[in-house]
Write a structure and sequence with these properties.
alpha/beta, Rossmann fold, 11 helices, 43% helix
């Protein structure tokens, strides 16, 4: 079992390039096709200038020149990224495809992600004037595709490394969300060199219908020979922080975690641990709704 179609949403930022390199490493590991998606969406700064022009705050000739300038910038970015993709394909001998699409990133990426085994997207909780307004769209893509999503933040420890999926950490509590995500991530588990299962003691009674933690280890060892378990003791530190701390301490380059939330109301009802992971991501996250 392996991924055959890997999608990555690309941009010209430095960490966007790093994300493309990570996605290429993942595609190489699985001998998969790498699909690079570039969405022609103006940045926040460009959108503000366009809005000011449309309101008549600048002369019409200047408005026409502004639109032409933005188009030239997007064309240059597309050419630059396509060349970068071709260079990576030549270096790593992988099959690649370039997709240059106009529209809103959160809408376009959601549609394309449904036709990939796994998708790699960026996520920055901060506002960034050089990126599209809807760039922090990982949550919407996550709860709208029904497919596994690899979320890479500029703060993630692996952003400047070259591997994605070599060593995995799995956050496990026996819930349907965890089981669904693990099933989607199984090709990555089988290709990993090491897997560590993280069990958190929340101080709450365990669900009597769930099996003990050792059960998931026995199951995973049918797919990978190098599976360990790590029980995290009760603490006042947020669970999302404890999971990331343990994953990084164990040398993981991806944390697999179930996404707890409700698709139609994800903005308000996203789960506490899921929200914590997405608000301060320090390691690439593989999630599935």
């Amino acid at each position: 079992m392996s991924f055959k179609d890997v999608l990555v949403h690309v941009d010209t930022s430095e960490w966007g390039r790093a994300r493309l390199r990570l996605a290429a490493n993942l595609a190489t590991r699985h001998q998969a096709r790498l699909n690079a998606l570039f969405v022609r969406e103006p940045s926040i700064a460009q959108q503000r200038k366009l809005k000011a022009s449309e309101l008549g705050l600048v002369p019409s000739r200047q408005f026409v020149n502004l639109r032409a300038s933005i188009l030239d910038e997007l064309n240059a970015q597309a050419l630059e990224l396509q060349k970068y993709l071709d260079d990576i394909a030549s270096e790593q001998s992988i099959d690649v495809a370039w997709h240059d699409v106009e529209g809103h990133a959160r809408t376009v990426a959601t549609q394309y992600a449904r036709y990939a085994d796994v998708s790699v997207v960026g996520h920055d909780p901060r506002d960034h004037a050089d990126l599209p307004e809807e760039y922090a769209f990982a949550e919407q893509v996550l709860f709208s595709t029904g497919r596994p999503l690899l979320i890479v933040s500029p703060f993630a420890s692996s952003a400047n490394n070259v591997t994605l999926g070599s060593n995995l950490a799995i956050a496990w509590n026996g819930s349907p969300a965890c089981a669904r995500t693990l099933s989607a991530a199984m090709p990555m588990v089988e290709a990993a060199e090491r897997v560590i299962v993280l069990i958190v003691d929340t101080g709450k009674p365990s669900n009597p219908d769930w099996l003990p933690p050792e059960a998931i280890v026995r199951h995973l060892r049918r797919h990978s020979a190098h599976v360990d378990i790590c029980a995290l003791e009760r603490s006042s530190i947020e669970i999302s922080e404890r999971l990331q701390d343990a994953a990084l301490a164990g040398g993981a380059d991806v944390l697999i975690a179930g996404a707890h939330g409700r698709p139609t109301l994800w903005e308000k009802l996203i789960g506490g641990v899921t929200g914590g992971l997405l608000n301060e991501p320090r390691i690439p996250l593989l999630m599935c709704s």
